[in-house]
Amino acid sequence: MSALVPAPTGRRLKALARAELTLLGRNRGALVTALLVPLALPFSVRPAVDRIDLEAQGLSIGTVMLTAAIGFSFLFAVYTSLVSAYVARREELVLKRLRTGELGDAEILTGTALPAVSVGFAQALVLGVGCAVLLDAGAPRAAYLTVLGLVAGLVLCAALAAVTATLTRTVESAQVTALPLVLVSMVGSGIAVPTEVMPDTLARVCELLPLSPAIQLVRGGWTGQLSGYEVLVAVATTVAWTGLAVFAVRRWFRWEPRR
Amino acid sequence: MNTNEHEHVIEVTDLRRVYGGGFEAVRGISFSVGRGEVFALLGTNGAGKTSTVELLEGLARPAGGRVRVLGHDPYEERAAVRPRTGVMLQEGGFPSELTVAETTRMWGGCVSGARPEDEALALVGLTGRSGVRVKQLSGGERRRLDLALALLGRPEVLFLDEPTTGLDAEGRRDTWELVRALRDGGTTVLLTTHYLEEAEGLADRLAILHEGSVAATGTPLEVTARQPSRISFRLPEGYFLGDLPPLAELGVCGHEVDGGLVRLRTRELQRTATGLLVWAERAGVELHGLDVRPASLEEAFLGIARERAVAA
Fold first, then answer.
1. How far is A89 from chain B (nearest CA, A)?
2. By Cβ atoms counted within 10 A, which residue in A93, B12, B72, B131 is the most buried?
3. Mutation target vs B (from A26, A100, A256, A258; most B CBs, 10 A cutoff)
């Protein structure tokens, strides 16, 4: 028996991610959702933000708009576009075909997610610099928290996209099944409305929503107003949601269409 | 080195598969495939061919029984088996917006010790189509792309689920030649088909599946030998069946007469044919439209389906 050297994970992920990036580039609808929506939507919430007394909460237009933009990037560039991608690959039997090869399940899902997650990351960088310069948000006070929030949000969005894909039968219905998380996060996770301006009890409940801790970390890193305890709770909440999502994917993810 | 592995590359024992709704698609089948053999699973649609192959490929966990591929459990020991197997599913799963070259490059990046992509495409005659998107390929071209990807990792064991469905006659011949060449190179091939001539011409051994069970197994010759051979001819005007030597003496096990057309069934073809021809020679009788043929796989196949239908 010849000793086969298995292809290294890095090379396999790269091959898969490259194909997926090509596909993203050829899907105009997905491209618009991923690239333009996160850049355009924050301006639609601006009038509402203007009416809020931000200074009393230690916020500024810049930081609020920035987190809104990054939040929209999580939801549209990563989450929504990945739900469609996972469902499309499953319905075309691509996932099933990939599972006959050397890739592990986690590698297949990760490789497929890489382009969307990279787009989300790049967008966050552009938005961060843009808001810092154009809206006088300034440099983040605790940049490591912002980065932590970014990574947490991106990973969790990818995992939640796989969970949502499990509940989605067709690419068309992905527009509907992705909606609940998008709406709940916009309203409750501090994307369209900063949680700081909510009544206390409501704010505390909303802090437990999946994307709340990531947004909180991103904004907190910018304003430098998070206590160590708050950071800890945010990280723990993200880890719990990610763990739950990973468990759900391992348990229920469908690798081929229902017949 | 495990010698057993060289004798039986695939071992299936009392394999069962039950789907979510409780439907038992595979009902306790057993067979084994030796190194360098071409083994065909033959059956009608719904006989359990794909359900069985998916268990061998390690795509699902069996409800019961045991599968070993190259000495490993293909489901539990995926990492040990996959680098050494190549799979062609019944329906290719490729993103329709990628080109042939992009698809091959992607797959090549995920395979250990991959052949050059051009070589794999050349093997299946798709070289000229590398810039074409998958969605623009014909059904036959898609099957060939699928085969190219299955061959990309120079597999020791190849699983082909209906490899020639949708191919034209020429494409089918090409695929057969390729499979034979691979077999001669030492590759073990397990294929499913509902084309009888494909199983007869290509397989070293085969199993006929019927409703999730193995109805018959062996070499194509062994399987067909269990069916009677056939002789048919027309007697000239004025001659009747009774003019022949006693049928039992000729080794005939069944007969039909339809107008002047006589059909005989026998398990001793040479004895029956000799007896018949010697009689005709002596009697000076011309047997019009004389047709002598050993049982074909098709008859074996239909015979099995009939028996089962009667038993049911």
1. 7
2. B12
3. A100
pLDDT at B4: 46
Tokens of B199: 């199983």
For residue A147, pLDDT over 50 is answered with: yes
The pLDDT tens digits for B221-243 are: 888 888 889 999 999 988 888 89
**Cα gap B26→B214, rounded to integer Å:** 9
Kindly state the percentage of chain B with pLDDT values over 90: 72
Q: Which of A216, A111, A99 is nearest to A162 (CA)?
A: A111
- What DSSP assignment string belongs to chain A? -----PPPHHHHHHHHHHHHHHHHHH-HHHHHHHHTHHHHHHHHHHHHHHTS--GGGT--HHHHHHHHHHHHIIIIIIIIHHHHHHHHHHHTTHHHHHHTSS--HHHHHHHHHHHHHHHHHHHHHHHHHHHHHHS---S-SSHHHHHHHHHHHHHHHHHHHHHHHHT--STTTHHHHTHHHHHHHHHHTTSSS-GGGS-HHHHHHHTTSTTHHHHHHHHHHHHT---HHHHHHHHHHHHHHHHHHHHHHHHH--SS---
How much is the mean pLDDT over chain A? 89
Q: Is a pLDDT exceeding 90 seen at residue B129?
A: yes
Q: The complex's ipTM?
A: 0.89
Indicate the residue of B59, B83, B97 with minimum beta-carbon distance to A23. B97
Residue corresponding to tokens 């009544």: A199
Longest dimension (CA), chain A: 73
Q: Which residues of B touch A (CB under 8 A)?
A: 1, 5, 57-59, 78-79, 82-84, 87, 89, 91-98, 102-103, 105-114, 153
The CA distance from A96 to B211, in Å, is 25
A93: which chain B residues are within 8 Å (Cβ-Cβ)? Answer: 89, 91-93
- Which pTM does this prediction carry? 0.87
**Encoded tokens for B62:** 């069996």
CB B92 within 8 A of CB B143: yes
Separation of alpha carbons B160 and B189, rounded Å = 7
